[in-house]
Fold these 4 entries.
Entry 1:
Amino acid sequence: MRFRHIAASAAILVWLLAPAARSAETPQPPAAKNDADTYRALDLFGEVFERVRADYVDKVSDEHLIEAAINGMLSSLDPHSSYMNAKEFAEMQVQVQGEFGGLGIEVTMDNGLVKVVSPIDGTPAAKAGLKPGDLIVAIDGQPVSGMSLNDAVQKMRGPIGSEIKLAIRRGTQPPFTVAIKRSVIKVQSVRSQLIDNDIGYIRISSFNEQADSGVHAAIKSLLDKSHNKLAGIVLDLRNNPGGLLDQAVAVANDFIPQGEIVSTRGRHPDDAQRFDAKSGNDISRGLPMVVLINGGSASASEIVAGALKDHHRAILMGTRSFGKGSVQTIIQLPGHGAMRLTTARYYTPSGRSIQATGIEPDIVVEPAKIERIATGPVTHEADLKGALKNTDTAAKPGSGAATAPSNETTPPAAAPGDEATTFGTPDDYQLARAVDMLRGLALFGPKKAVH
């Protein structure tokens, strides 16, 4: 068997090196000593493997034991390194293409529990009200503690239409259970809309293979709908868990015509990489921008937000981002699956790593509800007895004040945890503040013709 052959080879090498390790007369180079220690550890591993195969209470396949050992080794490094068997690797490849089966939730490990990075827009997880930072403590009644991340993800997948129950711990609230029906997740990573005829809103929910082309299509659509009269753009990266590095670089390049976008530094100096803007063209034509971020904005979305902030290309608004500043490389293992290995840290153009610290917005805006306050009747000058008439025939009532944005409406009562369902709607408080910011820039900034 394959593993037994490896274990035997390790034992032979230990035996060959042992005399040198025991000899007091012949000093052993440090590298050789380290190799000997490694082979002794591998020999120990082989001995434990054989003992489990022979004496464990239930029969366990060799493949299961080996995969579990590999995954344990990788997952002990950091929350994002892991092993994927052939089936899991195939599912991952489908996922980055924009369509997969499941709940529509990005997760990571946190102190032995599964932590929600963010739900994906429009998916069962988002509709059920799951929020970034939620801890999944049990899946269908089975405690998550002790599971690997891949095991937990596999348990959350299942037949389309089947129901799963997740026990959730949210902050200091008592744990509660959420029942969710699995569905086919088709991720439309980019959607857009025109607000008040002159503010472009672009939301990127994940950086899959369609992200950059989706942004190009969104900008073109917004310019057409506004008849080339856009006053500004809101780029919404809230609850965006990340995705493909090349797509993040491409999207940042859409708005940054030149200069560094991101750099990565690995274990070896020669592995350092720098990604620069190449197009030389800002597809938004230099329009003012506000980028919305929150605690669910992670990885690739932090690359985009960090680049736009460091280049002073956009104002960041919202709350602090997730803080995942590491790069994972998918290494395919021929004949098996693949390993996801953390190989580098990434740095924003200013040389700053956001690992575990996140990106602070320029303007902090917490999620809130928009409600109109009943003030009763208001008296104006025109209501006073004997008030002078305005003889300017061109004047209209209220013409001296800026019109309030149409998204200043009274929202319905919100259920706990459903902020994500309001993204891009008239009830989106953070979006309303971003629109206000862009209107201020349009009023007092330099006038720029958009052709």
Entry 2:
Amino acid sequence: MVQGFGIRTISAIGIIAVAAIAIALLTHDIQSVLVALIGGIAAVLAAAGTNEVASDPDPARTTNDIAEPELGPVLEAIVEPVMIVAEGRVTHANAPARALLGGHIVGQNVRLAIRHPAAAERLVGALEPGNSDPIDLVGLGTLDQRWQMRVAQTLATESGTGQRIVHLIDQTGNYAAERMRVDFVANASHELRTPLASILGYIETLRDEAGEDPGIRERFLKIMDDEARRMQRLVEDLISLSRIEAEKYRLPDRAVDLAGLIDEVRAEITKGEVVTELEDGVPTVVGDRVQLSQMLHNLIGNAIKYGHADKPVTVRLWRDAGNMVRLGVSDQGDGIPAEHIPRLTERFYRVDPGRSRAGGGTGLGLAIVKHIVERHRGRLDIASVVGTGTTVSISLPAYEPKG
């Protein structure tokens, strides 16, 4: 290795590694570290091709022969798309870059490899010193993907003006999360605004002559009370959802008797008929008793709300062969069309908005259930047959005492 590159090359690469570590400690920015490390090594290897190759015992070895076995593994170790560009052409591309843009991009003009108007100037034009502002790209890969492109210039060498490192960062997840946040705020605002507007409207009406009629006054006050309680349920669910999300990385560590909890919840529910089928000897689960109680209330409450009034809701509990405790809540209602099932756990998603609101639903019940199950490292499944009914199944790990 030392004979191939020379002492100066090895020393320079070592210095670059130390500098990259220093950047990581000072900035905590992994992207800056990657760019600094790749750019530095690329510049050193380019210099090695002009200054040290003469001492190589094999004169047939070229700069590319030296750079390829060293720069290649560095690029391939990076999980995000990275390319090296020299004189407007792609000289190196790691596997993620080839998977995104195609294997043919190596040797191709970089503006053909990344066909995006916003990227062209940064890829081949003059780079302003210190300008590392990312460029947002839409349309690479699939239409719903969002990418962020960063370009950095390596140091100039005796053989040219240096190379450019093109780093593509997948922002699709961040974009989706931001859209979910925006949609959540918009939906929450709408859900709160609707009953509030109704309450304010009835208050104004009662201030007029309508308030003098006892019958009208009583009817309006009943509507106002219903709307206020609807707002209260929504606020409580929002607080509950926020609390569950805040605790999702803190694993529960208590043993909870799910069979006993089902009996307690069943006794607390005053509407509808609930039938239980609880297998004997089902072990306790690892859980948060308060959250599991909330999960049961939401599941059974939903089943009663959307099932037929003259038919019972069935709650089953059993242990499967994989040491998981299984819970199933089934109704005998109208069922849910298949296209709606993947979205049922989204916040404020409703198959029938009018029916849900009329029944006092907030649109957050199954979203809360999903987050509770995720915190307990369980699994949630929903199966439904139109005209027959719906079954929500939960799998939770059985409790295993430590030591």
Entry 3:
Amino acid sequence: MSENNGNAAIWDVDGTLVDTAELHFQAWQEICREQGRDFTRDDFAATFGQRNPEIIRILFGERFNPEEIAALGDRKEILYRSAASKGVELLPGVRNLVEHLHRAGFAQAIGSSAPRANLELILRLTGIARFFAAVVSSEDTQRGKPDPQVFLLAAERLGIAPACCVVFEDAVAGVQAARAGGMKCVAVRCVGHHSEASLRQAGADVVVDKLEQVTVAAIADLLHP
């Protein structure tokens, strides 16, 4: 790798590095079925990218105490990891961009609402763990996106100022978190959870259909116009 150039790329995971949305949907569907509640596509769209405690409160209100919420979240993630362990692939353009950012001297981190075990599984299955100097997961934060805590902590662990960071996201809440943290944001529509208009309204600097459209030079220009 080239000497660090003072810039950083912070990556969301689900919907950005990989598309495991359907696995999450099926896991939540099973949890809700066990609790006597339907889980619809609209429920999924309204909660995707948030931390499990917030999702469970949205779905069930005040039905469960904190310990029960934690247990439900743990079970959901066990279901998810069991399915994901059968194989996960990077989305188009991801590996090339991650490698080129690495060679250009960008520090890189993961900033995700997912549990650490999920992130470690994805990074291991896809073979890209070595590119990330920091991994920030749900266990590291008290506030979920759109709060910027997850991205600010990633920048802090990399030792890079927020203004020199670009966030790769696919969700409106994640874009809002990046902007709230004073970072640039590239929104990716590869999995199509959100419209271009909604991502731009949330504050995305750039919206692309796939990461193959993004170059290191474009990221450098975005950070330092």
Entry 4:
Amino acid sequence: MTHTRDWNAASYARAGAPVEAFGHRLLDRLELRGDESVLDAGCGTGGVTEELIARVPEGRVIAVDGSRSMVERARERLGARADLRVGDLLELDLDEPVDVVFSSATFHWIADHDRLFARLFAALGPGGRLLAQCGGAGNIAMVVQALDVVTAEAPFAEHFAGWRGPWNYAGPEETVARLERAGFVDAEAGLHDERVRPEDPREYLETIMLGSHLARIPDEQRAPFVERVLSRLDEPVTLDYVRLTMTARRPEPA
């Protein structure tokens, strides 16, 4: 969310099915009456948002994403069925509190989880619930290892010197502690594994994983960079995701 690059929404719509599937499975864990106001924090192209809208027919969905192209694509899909906004979750400020904050595959793009959780806490009304999932500790380890090597090679190394990378893969204990510091109660977090074998590994890496890396290097180096990363992954390319799922609640006033 806080990275400055935009996303290729058209490519994401083609390649992002595995990531969107994470969101659909997470949504199955969300108990709803049907009249809640829900914030979709990091809505992407709106695929999961569309299902969320269907689950609150008497409610309201506010969908926020940091990528203008993603929100435009979501608007084409959803029309006026959701309140779609381009925005940074670290600067989130809603006019009215929501009952539920839902998020899938977004928080690992945000470096400052303390500030993130504080803004989400402020967005919820008393008794409001958070259900979120993102990449967690150990996520896509083979890709991370490949990047450690490739970003240190010429001609790429000069563009990555001193850069910590775009991801924040947190663990359960630190996540619960941060949620509690933000004011949440009943905070829980856990990790589980998911395996993805993308149909087009090159497009998947370019669009889903390496956009922030590619934004740092000249255009003519981008294709060779992706090829170097691919060359360090076993065939067929299999991505071992570690998903961090968290739940929490804003307490009722005493």
